[in-house]
Every structure is written in C-alpha cells, then in structure tokens.
Amino acid sequence: MNANKAELQKEVIYKTSRSGGKGGQNVNKVSTKVELLFSVDDSLLFNDDEKQLINTRLQSRFNKDGFVQVVCDEERSQYLNKEKAIEKLVNLLTKALIVDKPRKATKVSRSIKAARAENKRQQSAKKESRKRKFDY
After folding, report:
1. Measured by CB atoms within 10 angstroms of the end CB, which terminus of the chain is less buried, N or C?
2. Of 11-20, 60-69, 96-105, where does mean pLDDT reach its minimum?
C-alpha cells in the first residue's frame, strides 16, 4: 500500500479549517485542521470485490455524501496533519481489506471429556471429605 500512497493522494479531497487547541496566536490565523475525504466507489485503485468489502467494513466512517472521512488536527502544521490523515486512511483501508479466515468447528475429544469428568470427581471427593458428619 506504500507504493499506492501517491496514487491514493491523487484521489483524495482535502478540506482545511482553523483548529482549536495548542498553538497560541497561530491557531487564530492558520488553517491547520485537515479533513480528508475519499470516495471508495470512484476510486481506480480497487476492484469491485475490494470496494464492496471496504464499503461493508467502513460503513460507520462514511459521511452523508458517501465519502470516507478522516479528520486530523493533532499537529500545529497543516502539512503534518495531511500526512497523518493520509496514514490513517491507509491504515483504515488495509485493515478493511484483510479477509478473516473461516473458523473450523471442532469437537472436544473423548479423552479431554474423561479427564474433565475425573477432575470433577476428585474435586467433589475433596469437598465431601471436608464436610462434618453428624450422628443423630
């Protein structure tokens, strides 16, 4: 995905705005907050299966216009915030494309069941021996 980073940046839309937080007067003058918008459906980097997988996995990340939205205002410079935002997007997309291995159902073996039953019997005998026996 690192080689595709430059290609990914071509398909991304950036919006900048003033950011709160640290920075002193710089906060009031410079637009350092970066909002990154990426359209999965219009992207040329992914095939249809990958697009469908991304759309299902990142459903909560889409805004009302159908763009994946990443916001970054951690740094004091716009350039660093753009770099962090693109890194976040790359991480989101790579995690979304990982296909989980299907789980194989397995049975508990007979020897394991027997060992557990034996352990229960021993525990029961230990507790039984601790009880007081009353003669009436």
Report:
1. C
2. 11-20
- Say which CATH architecture domain 5-97 belongs to: 2-Layer Sandwich (3.30)
State the pLDDT at residue 27: 67
Domain ranges of the chain: 5-97
Amino acid 82 reads K
In eight-state DSSP terms, residue 62 is: B
Tokens of 12: 């991304």
Q: Supply 1's token pair.
A: 């995905």
- The string of pLDDT tens digits covering residues 55-80 is 888 888 888 888 888 888 888 888 88
pTM of the model: 0.66
Distances (CA, A) of 96 to 6, 38, 60, 61: 19, 14, 12, 11
Residues in contact with 19: Cβ distance below 8 Å, sequence separation at least 6, in sequence order: 27, 31, 32, 33, 73, 81
